[in-house]
Write a structure and sequence with these properties.
nine-stranded mixed β-sheet, 18 helices, about 475 residues, alpha/beta, 20 strands, Endonuclease, Chain A, globular, seven-stranded mixed β-sheet
């Protein structure tokens, strides 16, 4: 009887493995090496391999939940894209990076939008204070989406402010990612719910102890207030962002506050992310019926800054973010300066940077010396040697650098939630702003130079002095990082 049960169990495991492998081959569009690697893992360690795939693999294909908001977005795009393209063609001789804007219009369906005001935050304290002030001044609606909301003082302050406004009759909606906020107690949000605020999780776990897999996380950070003020960037909500955790001090980050036309795009994206995870159909109907309240009319005052917002996620047919960043680095003519907490590029992005450096372009990459994840940090440091050998300057920031920025040629800048890794490029829901204004690029260049004062410039001596154990870890973690 026992032998029969064991044989049946093995048959079931092999059947599940085979079904998963066939699904990867025929349903997914991943790189062949990715499918081959997982096939080998599930073949040689069947049960454990399948569990690892559930937890870290790209997992089941996420079905897109279509709503009326898709029609709104498509209609606005179709009504605007043609005249934007005509307008841009008239500027061809004045703007050498026009092909990138056109690429975003065509490939990402990202319209050029204006920001009347654009405030860059390099410090969470200033961002939190500005955000709370804007929340407390809200008159109609507050929409909040974060990857992480901690159950600490920072999280409590945010929920207290939102609760106060909900009690005053302001419509409050909040989305938080169940994976990023895995350790946050549900009790944190109870006062907001009791005050009438709507709180939902993105892609919640069926089993709390297992939390599904770590993919398909909503890594965006979006706040929209009264449809007129928007926030986005790299900062979540937590005390560590205020450098209150000695392990991650100082903490450096990048976030943005905007007003003007661009807020419309942030509002639409929030509503699409929100309606994708809500279960109350009455709330969806309320949004549809009163949609105009979330998009107040703006005057036509000329915007100070033009930018394009690019959104990506596993519900998209294309890897928008990956293609966009590859296009971004291949346009550079003089310099590429990058700040990222994690640097685990795919082969195309890495080769693009190497080719740029060998072409005489000044490529600088700044990463933190402090790891918040040992696995990810070792995978990141595994790239240092080949970057240095390609002539790329690599800096270790003496603290935790969470800023996700890039500047090319000192003229164009990008800020967002996107890390320079496979997960951000292909798996998570992300947001990046590509900004066409030298003043913003100048701010980020000056910030990079200031951060260099806290950095150590690496050279091949550092690589040669690595222990054999560290090199072994880097090799193994780099291989595994391509699967997760």
């Amino acid at each position: 009887m026992l032998t029969w049960m064991i044989a049946l169990s093995l048959f079931v495991i092999q059947f599940i493995n085979l079904w998963t492998i066939l699904r990867m081959i025929f349903k997914r569009k991943d790189e062949p090496i990715y499918i081959i690697a997982w096939t080998l893992i599930m073949t040689f360690i069947p049960f454990i391999g399948f569990l690892l795939y559930l937890l870290f693999g790209h997992g089941p294909i996420m079905a897109k939940k279509a709503t009326f908001l898709d029609e709104v977005e498509e209609r606005e795009y179709q009504e605007t894209v043609e005249w934007q393209l005509k307008k841009l063609m008239n500027r061809r001789i004045h703007f050498p990076y026009l092909s990138f804007i056109i690429f975003n219009l065509n490939y990402n369906k990202s319209l050029v939008m204006g920001a009347k005001t654009f405030t860059y935050f390099n410090d969470a304290k200033e961002k939190y204070e500005a955000l709370l002030a804007d929340i407390l001044n809200a008159k109609d609606s507050i929409h909040v989406l974060y990857f992480i909301i901690r159950g600490d003082e920072s999280g409590e302050r945010l929920i207290q402010a939102l609760t106060q406004k909900a009690r005053e009759g302001v419509q409050v909606r909040l989305v938080y990612d169940d994976g990023g906020s895995f350790m946050t107690p549900a009790s944190l949000f109870r006062p907001l719910k009791e005050a009438g605020g709507m709180v939902v999780k993105h892609y919640p776990a069926k089993l709390k102890i297992f939390t599904l897999n770590w993919n398909y996380r909503n890594h965006r950070k979006i706040v929209v207030i009264d449809g007129k003020i928007g926030y986005f960037g790299g900062m979540n909500i937590g005390d560590e962002y205020l450098s209150k955790n000695p392990k991650f001090t100082p903490w450096r980050d990048a976030h943005v506050r905007v007003t003007g036309e661009v807020v419309r795009s942030l509002q639409l994206r929030f509503l699409k992310d929100y309606t994708a995870v809500i279960e109350r159909l009455s709330d969806l109907e309320q949004i549809k019926t009163h949609l105009s309240r979330y998009f107040p009319e703006e005057d036509h005052e000329d915007a100070e800054i033009e930018l394009q917002l690019v959104y990506d996620g596993p519900d998209q047919e294309r890897d928008h973010m990956r293609a966009t960043y590859i296009k971004w680095v291949t346009m550079a003519k003089e310099s590429i300066w990058i700040q990222s907490p994690y640097f685990i590029p795919d082969s195309e992005f890495l080769h693009g940077l190497k080719i740029a450096s060998h072409s005489g372009i000044d490529v600088k990459i700044m990463i933190p010396i402090i790891p918040d994840n040992h696995f990810v940090h070792r995978a990141t440091t595994s790239y240092i040697k080949e970057l240095l050998e390609a002539g790329i300057e690599v800096y270790f920031y003496d603290g935790f650098l969470h800023s996700k920025t890039m500047v090319i040629d000192g003229q164009l800048a990008t800020i967002g939630s996107v890390n320079m890794d496979v997960r951000s490029f292909s798996i998570n829901f992300e947001l990046a702003a590509f900004i066409y204004h030298e003043s913003v690029a100048h701010q980020l260049i000056e910030q990079f130079k200031a951060d260099q004062q806290r950095c150590r410039l690496l050279d091949l001596t550092d690589e040669n002095n690595k222990s054999w154990w560290m090199k072994a870890e880097e090799s193994v973690y780099r291989l595994l990082s391509m699967l997760m």
